[in-house]
């Protein structure tokens, strides 16, 4: 099942930090909606691990957080922090930029993991997009609000760029140490441009 | 994959009765919405088996109802009963109390099954909550109405209490014959207090 | 895991054509909603492969499109076609009739695949319904509009008829070459009658 492709791994602390950023965005949405602490934990978990969970189910890998002793407690702790701090600490741009880093990093990790499990390039590209975006989409569907998928912002597109660079470079035989940082940077730069200048994709005009 | 933890099993009739109660709550929502019989079957199935299905997918167990000859027919029969009886037979408090029993029982079964499959304690606790609550959440999302997750009622919290007592007692090495009934009773008592006195959790106040 | 039941396979071109029809219905919904190209690809993929994906996860089979080199590119190409053509090319009845063919064909394929994987008859029947309908349901939930599941049209019912004939005939020991076309025709005829004459199921009247 495992092919010869290598798998990028974040240092464990960076990986957990990335999950915590996603989890925080879920917990803060629950706070905005004036929800209870239990709901906040649920949103933190779904947003933090949702994308990677769907990827692992699709490629047939064991779901990454179920047998990990740290990921679920990190989501729980994030919800605790969100509950006991004023939301204005987290408002503004810090969280959006942290989320942009996470989006690009997880799009690369997700597509590289899919390649490493022997998935074909086009589906592996889609796995990268899913890893970066699906947690936020499930969060928005549960909250009953229009998901990032339905907004013209360059969000899903940034994940798609990172995953495409990762797949393209790997298939071309370039070393991971070169491809992975480059791929993550490309998606982060695009998402950053969208945040800084409000760039959006055009909608269908018929 | 299977650890040394034991697995609580309900007597088969009690297990099917629990699934039928959840399935009935799905079928009755379809009836309230004046849906067709086919939709009613779909809702009965999703609500009856949704939580356990998500748990089994996450922990990598075979999905419990797919190879079982009884569970799917029970959901189908429940939908038939709901279709041919007036909804007022089922309105009022009977169904809520039956659902409270099912919620507590399935939170215990779900967390104990996850432990038995070698899942770490914190994710196993979350598997208990998922087993008890996710069927109803999917049902509400499909119906386009705010899910129990977004209401302040002590519902998800009751499942969380049952699962926590189950995990805590098992990790402490207490025998299942003591822990499981105690855990189920704790969650049922909390849910019962919420039903009898309208207790709710506080929302986030910033 | 694999039982003695045979598995119907469409000729590869017909199979990809069926996926493309479902994917096109997803892409066109994104076009109607004036979404971006990236969203259109996401909708094409989810609608094209969603039902079969859920079926494969439930029965424990490898997800059919993840290791296939053609399915994901077909969904991508379909989205490109939808983006660069005026929607009026696709409006009107052509797409509805193509969708009716796909619905009946995939209900048969899904239930036969479940039987071939050793699933019991009643759950296998439900797998057929899921394969035909769930892609469209996820598409509608993501778009935030009432799904086909909540409309009285004979849609889910047509899939249920095809799957039931397929299961019934196979369990009765009839040869697949006879059962599969008959089952697909039955569901297609029912869906066609609904399209041609606006037949709908009655809703629950209490």
Automatic annotation (TrEMBL), chains A, B, C:
Residues 14-85, 97-167 form the Glycine transporter domain. The chain crosses the membrane at residues 12-30, 37-58, 70-90, 97-116, 122-142, 154-172, 178-200. The lineage of its organism: Bacteria, Pseudomonadati, Pseudomonadota, Alphaproteobacteria, Sphingomonadales. The keyword Endoplasmic reticulum does not apply. This is Trimeric intracellular cation channel family protein. Keywords: Cell membrane, Membrane, Transmembrane, Transmembrane helix. It is a multi-pass membrane protein. It comes from the Bacteria. The keyword Transmembrane applies. It is found in: Cell membrane. Pfam families: Gly_transporter (PF03458). Belongs to the UPF0126 family. It comes from Novosphingobium tardum.
